[in-house]
Specification:
The structure holds 3 protein chains of 3 kinds. Chain A has one domain (2-271): ABC transporter involved in vitamin B12 uptake, BtuC, CATH 1.10.3470. Chain A contains 12 helices and no strands. Chain A has helices spanning 2-30, 36-54, 59-82, 93-113, 133-155, 157-167, 169-174, 179-200, 202-205, 211-226, 231-252, 254-271. Chain B has 2 domains: 45-257, no CATH class; 341-602, 3-Layer(aba) Sandwich (Rossmann fold), CATH 3.40.50. Chain B has helices at 4-10, 29-40, 47-72, 81-96, 105-124, 132-152, 154-157, 175-198, 200-210, 212-217, 222-248, 258-271, 277-292, 297-314, 318-323, 341-348, 395-402, 448-454, 464-469, 472-492, 507-519, 537-552, 564-570, 588-593, 595-602, and strands at 163-164, 250-251, 357-366, 369-379, 384-388, 410-415, 418-419, 433-435, 525-529, 556-560, 573-578, 581-586. In chain B, helix 22 (537-552) links the parallel strand 9 and strand 10 (556-560). By secondary structure, chain B is an alpha/beta fold. By secondary structure, chain C is an alpha/beta fold. Chain C has a single domain (8-239), classed as Rossmann fold (3-Layer(aba) Sandwich). The chains are: A mainly alpha, B alpha/beta, C alpha/beta. The A-B interface holds A 33, 80-81, 84-85, 91-93, 95-97, 99-101, 103-104, 106-108, 110-111, 115, 213-214, 216-217, 220, 224, 253, 255-256, 258-259, 262, 265-266, 269-270, 273, 283-285 and B 74, 76, 78, 126, 129-134, 136-138, 140-142, 144-145, 148-149, 151-152, 213, 258, 262, 269, 296, 298-299, 301-302, 304-306, 308-309, 312-313, 316, 366, 396, 400, 405-406, 437. Chain A: It is found in: Cell membrane.
Chain lengths: 285, 604, 245
């Protein structure tokens, strides 16, 4: 049972962590928390199933195509839901516009793809039991993503530009950084990361149009715990959440485990609204 | 105090044409028309229509309460279906006698309302601490949880199999009878929500949404106010849930989809924030839409989402803005701000002189930066006290300490002998300390008159419940606030603009609106934060006169300003700050000739 | 007919700008010539920062014209102006604290070919040996004075024809102020024009050729620094009247 808790918990935790990173990536350049994060995860599963099972494409083609398509969705989100309301951040209109876009994505999927969960193919055909690939693929995807992001943010000028825009948008603009293009780039990147989460976790989550809100909520918890924009916090928070949820699942039963997660979430949020490693509030007057 | 009568005396012939007061926001007529239509609906004889209309009425019972949270207070509660679910199950379970002895349906409904009120409060309270997106997420999470509990708690809720809804006795046991019952609840919901919306509580909610800092300065307590609204909205939602269960006759957790939650939320936004009529029309529209337009549930939700996006991006005011005829009314051309001292006398009247306001040894640092470094300052009633100094010298910080926004690490602040609580901005209004802001904090979507009335919020006597029922004390409050606000607007010279939306005014006019709002407190002390910034030379001259007049009525004024000429012109006493300390103080002429002042200013 | 003189590198005419409803600049006229250091003075809230932001395109202007190097800069954003050689170092030494000094400078050359970028960064560092020694430390590890030097150095990476410095002395000790302003003199020798916003009037005047005083969004005074009785004129411009005695 312990092995099973660990395997499922880490797998789900890695998916949540990746969705958390998706939130963070969009937030960094735009200060927007986007409801589309969970939908990108959902699309990863649906695209994967569509390309590999319905169209019969091999993994090496299907995965890049999935990431590309989701990156495009990310860019469209930036154009439709983020850019028009950036100027009026005071009113938090972005909550509404990204919610609307997230719903449009979800309902379009429901209409085009169907409302029943569809199977997701085995990707590599490796492992059985608790070593089944469906348990470790998300963890591997999460590790690769974190490694890639660390390289990007630490070693490349492009990554530094992302950091600069995230830290001080105005100074970055004054310096002549292409802030707008960087923002679009970060939305494309977030799209790919979100889809990777859904793709890697596809065998657990299936290709199901209604996965979005669930991933939204459980992917947001690591962000809330780790503090906005903190990717390492999101990974730790995500894995902890996954393990906690599965442990509660096995001990007190599935339904009440969600109640436990929610209660814990509220308590932590109220006790530390900025996250456990969060930043301070800004001056208001 | 009786100010309504001298209000009338002070403005002979100056009564604006917009004096007629609507009974409900947006006027009563559209509501009556809708009601007439609703009452006449059985004439169609089509029971299918009865079902749709009943549904719309039930949804509106919920949305009427939710509207105060989302539309008025601006709190993005997207998971309100949770309270509908809770109300539906509470009513059904109590009526069925699963837990307690069987109850009559209306008693069960009342119990559900109580449970809903408490749940509404519990779900809502995180809004006091969390930012918008976080709050939206917690309500979303709560919606998921309630459904899952309903599924899991089989012995009470029947789990996935479900439970029968309450059976409402004759005459409500047929389609049209039940429709009239729900319509009755909808009318009550409209009245209660409408009354709150047009009371000082409704204005305070909008102030919290659009100008939270100004709301605090006006003495509005966000926790108390939001708690009232959450209780009310929770109760309404639960009643709606009970009726919903009655309509369904049999409920399962699947009946309470997240799509329903979105319908409620989007109905408010499509209707327009801060309106009652708009969200009502929005609810009716969204209930009808799937029946006419879309055969598939997926299509109707897609339609809602597209509408939400279109509303936010293209018509931020929603239906309410589209049907608001006054919106396009032309502002008076070649208008000017002409303050009238006479109205000031009528408004401020004779008051006992306030004791001096003393700051002793105030020290405040942000991190390593010392903003104020041991400051002593005395404000006296009836005196204009200028506070000047170079950038970063601590002027505005001082003002923020006095008005309670900043909590200094050292020092004391006292009004006479009574110490003032540090870091409690909402407590200042009650002590007669009013302020304006460097950037005017105005509610653009409210009229100028409503903006000014917000300044007098603490002067109201009626409770939230009295306002909801529009009892005599509430009516008296409202009349007095409006009369005072008109006087204050006359005093600053903007009475001609009372009925216009504030976001149509020029920047300089907004500065005077802020002063009018501050005057509503009949302040003992008025703190002005750069009131002349962005004003023309002529407007600055009039501002100077106005400030002098205000102080002549016994109010002590603290004037933080960059315009040195204005300071030296109207102040009785000037303090010059540099690096958080007093560099010089005294009468203007003394300070003006002070060598160090000149060099501090010129940076030599 | 062209009003700008041939050697005017920047000419601002009848410039109106502000934030939303708040108008800050009401018809500003200003000229900077090649190789000239111009001090822009004025009391708080006069619109100095707004003026620089409007010139660099950080803030779109509502009316008036800005010509730089003979080009009309209408609609140009900060990227375009920086690429044209008009660089704005904003106030408050807002360097990026999470990346190294070197990366801060490389970011200033974002979009340039790699070889050029590296070369320009080294050139900029030559002005500030103090921070060149700390090139691998994070921006956040520098002192306020060093951050200000880094901010100025960032401005130099683009090899500006005109460098606009917004209050480079703010929060610095007098020694550091002199150090930062000495760079202004060095730049002038190399033929770079500088538009300098300063609170420390005497220090600003010491390095400048000409001075503008901006009061309430308008130019109240424009004069060469050598003008007789300049201090009195500035005082009158600031306070809006003569002393009371």
């Amino acid at each position: 049972m312990l092995a099973s808790i660990l395997a499922t918990g880490l797998a789900m935790g890695a998916v949540y962590a990746l969705i958390g990173i998706t939130y963070n990536t969009m937030f960094a350049t735009s200060r927007v928390m986007s409801f589309t994060a969970g939908q990108l995860g959902m699309l990863g599963g649906v695209f994967g199933s569509l390309l590999m099972l319905r169209w019969g494409l091999p993994l090496v083609v299907a995965l890049p195509l999935t990431l590309l398509a989701a990156a495009l969705v990310g860019v469209v989100t930036e154009f439709v839901a983020v850019r028009p309301v950036l100027r009026s951040l005071e009113q938090h209109l972005y909550v509404l516009t990204t919610l609307a876009v997230a719903l449009i994505i979800q309902q379009t999927t429901a209409i085009e793809w169907g409302t029943e969960p569809a199977p997701f193919p085995r990707l590599l055909g490796l492992g059985e039991g608790v070593w089944h690939e469906k348990y470790w693929l998300p963890v591997v995807a999460c590790a690769i993503t974190i490694g890639g992001l660390e390289y990007l943010y630490r070693r490349t000028l492009l990554g530094h530009a992302f950091i600069a825009v995230a830290e001080d948008n105005y100074a970055a603009r004054a310096l002549g950084l292409p802030e707008r293009n960087l923002r679009i780039g970060s939305y494309a990147l977030a799209g790919a990361i979100g889809a990777l989460a859904g793709f890697a976790g596809g065998q657990l989550l299936l290709a199901f149009f209604a996965n979005g809100p669930l991933l939204n909520f459980y992917g947001f918890i690591p962000v809330a715990l780790g503090g906005l924009g903190n990717n390492r916090g999101a990974v730790i928070g995500g894995l902890a959440l996954g393990l906690f949820q599965q442990a509660a699942n096995f001990t007190v039963g599935g339904i009440f485990s969600s109640v436990a997660v929610f209660t814990l979430f509220i308590i932590v949020l109220l006790a530390a609204p900025q996250g456990l490693f969060g930043a301070t509030a800004s001056r208001r007057v | 105090m009786a100010s309504a009568d001298h209000g009338a005396a002070a403005m002979p012939g100056a009564v604006p044409a917009t004096r007629r007061k609507p009974l409900l926001p947006g006027g009563l007529l559209p509501f009556l028309l809708l009601l007439a239509l609703a009452i006449a609906l059985p004439l169609t004889g089509n029971e299918y229509w009865a079902l749709i209309a009943t549904r719309a009425a039930i949804y509106w019972v919920l949305v009427a309460g939710l509207n105060l949270i989302v539309g008025f207070a601006g709190q993005l509660a997207i998971g309100y279906v949770a309270l509908l679910t809770l109300g539906a199950y509470t009513t059904s379970v109590l009526a069925a006698g699963n837990v307690l002895p069987e109850m009559p349906p209306f008693l069960a409904l009342a119990c559900a309302a109580a449970v809903g009120a408490v749940a509404g409060l519990v779900v809502g309270l995180p809004a006091l601490r969390l930012r918008t997106f976080y709050f939206a997420m917690t309500t979303l999470g709560f919606a998921t949880i309630v459904t899952q509990v309903a599924l899991a708690w089989q012995e009470v809720t029947g789990g996935g199999i479900g439970i029968s809804g309450p059976y409402f006795p004759a005459p409500f046991d047929n389609a049209w009878g039940f429709y009239y019952l729900c319509l009755g609840f909808a009318v009550i919901a409209t009245l209660l929500a409408g009354n709150v919306g047009r009371s000082r509580f409704g204005r305070a909610l909008i102030a919290i949404r659009d100008a939270e800092v100004a709301a605090e300065a006006a003495g509005i307590s966000k926790p108390a106010l939001l708690a009232c609204v959450f209780l009310f909205a929770g109760a309404m939602a639960a009643v709606a849930g009970g009726l919903f269960a009655g309509l369904q006759t049999y409920i399962t957790p699947e009946a309470f989809t997240f799509e329903l939650s979105l319908l409620f939320f989007i109905a408010v936004l499509i209707g327009g924030r801060g309106s009652v009529l708009g969200p009502l029309l929005g609810t009716v529209l969204l209930t009808l839409l799937p029946e006419i337009a879309a055969p598939l549930a997926a299509w109707s939700t897609l339609l809602y989402a597209v509408m939400l996006l279109a509303i936010v991006l293209a018509v931020p005011g929603g239906i309410a803005a589209l049907i608001d005829m006054g919106r396009r009314r032309r502002l008076p051309a070649d208008r000017a701000i002409l303050p009238r001292p006479a109205a000031l006398g009528a408004l401020l009247g004779q008051r006992p002189a306030a004791p001096p306001l003393r700051l002793r040894g105030i020290a405040l640092h942000f991190g390593g930066l010392r903003a104020i470094d041991g400051l002593d300052l005395v404000l006296r009633p009836g005196e204009v006290h200028g506070l000047i100094g170079p950038n970063g010298s601590g002027k505005t910080t001082t003002l923020n300490v006095i008005s309670g926004y900043y909590q200094p690490q050292q020092g004391s602040l006292a009004l006479g002998e009574a110490p003032l609580a540090m870091g409690r901005p909402e407590s200042r209004a009650g002590q007669g300390i009013a302020r304006t802001f460097q950037t005017p904090r105005i509610i653009g979507e409210a009229t100028v008159l409503q903006n000014v009335m917000i300044g007098g919020t603490v002067a109201g006597h009626a409770t939230f419940a009295e306002a909801m029922l529009w009892l005599p004390r509430q009516a008296a409050d409202e009349a007095r606030l409006e009369a005072d606000a008109r006087l204050a607007l006359q005093a600053v010279g903007l009475e001609a603009l009372a009925g216009f939306r504030a976001d149509r005014l020029q920047h300089s006019e907004l500065r005077f609106v802020e002063i009018a709002r501050a005057l509503m407190l009949r302040p003992a002390y008025l703190l002005l934060d750069e009131p002349a910034a962005g004003l023309s030379a002529e407007e600055i001259r009039r501002l100077g006169q106005l400030i002098r007049e205000i102080s002549a009525h016994g109010t002590g004024v603290l004037l933080v300003e960059h315009h040195a000429d204005l300071i030296f012109d109207i102040c009785g006493h000037v303090t010059v700050l540099n690096l958080g300390r007093v560099l010089a103080e005294g009468r203007p002429a003394e300070v003006r000739a002070h060598k160090e002042v000149i060099s501090a200013y010129l940076g030599a | 007919m062209p009003i700008s003189e041939p050697e005017a590198i920047l000419s601002v005419q009848d410039l109106h700008a502000g934030y939303g409803r708040i108008r800050v600049l009401h018809g500003v006229e200003l000229v900077v010539r090649t190789g000239e250091v111009v001090a822009l003075l004025g009391p708080n809230g006069a619109g100095k920062t707004t003026l620089l932001s409007a010139i660099s395109g950080l803030l779109p202007h509502e009316a008036g014209s800005i010509r730089f190097g003979g080009r009309d800069m209408a609609g140009a954003g900060p990227r375009e102006t920086a690429a044209a050689g008009l660089v704005h170092v904003i106030e408050g030494h807002r360097v990026f604290t999470q990346v190294t000094v070197l990366d801060n400078l490389l970011l200033a050359g974002y979009g340039l070919p790699r070889a050029e970028r590296n070369q320009y960064v080294e050139e900029a560092l030559e002005f500030f040996p103090e921070i060149a020694a700390k090139r691998h430390e994070r921006g956040g590890a520098l002192s306020g004075g060093q951050q200000q030097m880094l901010a100025v150095a960032q401005g130099l990476v683009r090899r500006p024809k005109l460098l606009m410095l917004d209050e480079p002395s703010a929060g610095l000790s007098p020694v550091l102020v002199d150090r930062v302003l000495s760079v202004v003199a060095a730049l002038r020798q190399r033929g770079v024009s500088v538009l300098l916003v300063e609170q420390l009037i005497e220090k600003a005047l010491a390095v400048s050729d000409r001075v503008y005083a901006l009061v309430q969004g308008k130019v109240a005074l424009a004069a060469p620094t050598g003008t007789e009785g300049l201090a009195r004129k500035l005082e009158a411009a600031y306070f809006g009247m003569e002393p009371a005695k």
